[in-house]
Amino acid sequence: MKKFLLQEPVQVETPAGHRITTIRHFCKGCRICVAFCPKQVLGLDDRFKVAALHPERCIACRMCELRCPDLAIYVTRKPAARAPVEAAPR
Ligand code: SF4
Ligand code: SF4
Prior knowledge:
Blueprint: E1 10-13, E2 19-22, H1 32-36, E3 42-44, E4 50-52, H2 63-67, E5 73-76
Antiparallel strand pairs: 1-2, 2-5, 3-4
């Protein structure tokens, strides 16, 4: 992946331990993620690129990641916040 990137992704660690990663040069500033974020975490910066303006509000729902048409944002949940995997019944 790294060889396709012109710039390093920007990573923001939220107080809850989730990580919001944005790939600025993929972002076209369409604001879809901004509109779909249920916690108003995201906005655009002065270059019309996505930015995590209120990371403390992020609940790691990954709606931004799922809605972005350009793969410009993704969210990694804090490991403890992931649902436990149940063993398959035998
Ligand atoms: S949806 Fe994707 S391309 Fe559009 S503003 Fe958000 S990160 Fe940028
Ligand atoms: S993971 Fe959910 S709450 Fe966090 S920035 Fe994305 S849409 Fe907003």
